[in-house]
Specification:
The protein is mainly β. About 0% of the residues lie in helices and about 55% in strands. The chain contains no helices and ten strands.
């Protein structure tokens, strides 16, 4: 199965092997994750739920479903969260999924 191997373009990004984790400003409600393969016209992940792991420090996590990472390629991603009743969207970041060796 292909695995996420690289992400760039978003400050606070810390991990992407089994999940995406970010730390930012405090958040008040869980958000959504969007991911679209470059050149595609529809999202591979379209608003899937994100978990807030520490609201006061803005730590959030998105855990991959197997269908999210089953196709190698370059993907544009965004995360939406709510802070003080305002919807915030991260700067787009790039995720590269490469074919596994095994």
């Amino acid at each position: 199965m292909p695995l996420p191997s690289q992400a760039s373009g978003s400050e606070g990004f810390t991990e992407c092997t089994s999940s995406i984790r970010m730390a930012a400003s405090p958040v008040t409600r869980a958000g959504k994750f969007y991911m679209r393969k470059r050149g595609a016209h529809s999202n591979k992940v379209n608003g899937s739920a994100i978990n807030v792991t520490a609201a006061a420090t803005g730590q959030i996590e998105y855990r991959w479903a197997s269908a999210d990472v089953n196709t190698a390629g370059t993907y544009d991603c965004e995360i939406e969260v709510t802070r003080s009743s305002k919807l915030l969207t991260t700067e787009r970041f790039v995720l590269v999924i490469r074919e596994g060796l095994g």
